[in-house]
User: What shape does this take?
Amino acid sequence: MNKKLARLRRARKTRAKIADMQAVRLCVHRSNNHIYAQIIGEKGVLAQASSVEAEVRSNAKYGNNVAAAAVIGKRIAEKAKAAGIEEVAFDRSGFKYHGRVKALAEAARENGLKF
Assistant: This one.
């Protein structure tokens, strides 16, 4: 089993538990160059933010780093509040909870999301 299959196996287990809770989830995906966050509910994607967005990319100091992940966490929390969402289940997609994933989660918590 390679690293990707192991990550996808962990992600499946987490998503099954979140589906049992019937909660809105904050799904995070991390690639080598970018980080993406989506809030997914029964009706589909309710809010999204990523380091690909023009507002984030226009600032040269945000790239593939923890600072960019913190900005994305703040943006997703603001968009969730605008959509009327205050509580989510955190779906890290099988990634370890450290580095960019941890920075995104902490920034989202600081800006009002509860998980």
In short: The chain is about 45% helix and 20% strand.
